[in-house]
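quick one before i forget lol
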Amino acid sequence: MTALNDLRILCFGASITAGFYSFGLNHHPYANRLTQRLQGSLPSLKIAIDIGALSGDRVIGGEYLQRLRPHFEGDTAKKYDWVIFQGGGNDLGWGKEPTAIYDELKKLWKICLDGGAKVMALTVTETSDQSRQTRARYDQLNESIKNHREENYFVADVCREVPYAAMDPELRRRVWDDGLHFKRAGYDMLGDAIADRLLEVLQERHGQEKL
């Protein structure tokens, strides 16, 4: 832990992490619900969550690396217990190959791990583009994320927990905004899914008394 009775988390990513909706006129980060859930389940801990999000950013040719380093290196570094990390969706949208995206993700995860944090990698949430080619590329990247094995690396499969294609159409209208981003209810669902997974890992690995 960073300090006695503290749990410090960095939520890092692009527009989904920022909670982008209504064409960017409003934001409702999943970190809001995540904070509520963790504080409710772990009342003896002080939950401190920072958000590092840049809408439209890419892991290849974007600013992920430049944005991430100051959190772990130099005078601006902080000591995080966990990094909730999502990246790669915009790269897929730009036509980058899943294998190349995965290679970059591994480098970014390593910065977090080397900095003493545990990583909770999020799968890339799907979009309204359900063409066979698009589905195959998303599936390939998400399988790489899920199958990655490294000490202190964990996965929350938010693509499965908050789907697009498999969701009931009525619920989809309440959850999804523009076929890529969520509405407030969707970001709350995302926060719930992440909280469920994080609490599961904390309990399985350590028990609450050894978080």
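fyi The chain has a mean pLDDT of 95.
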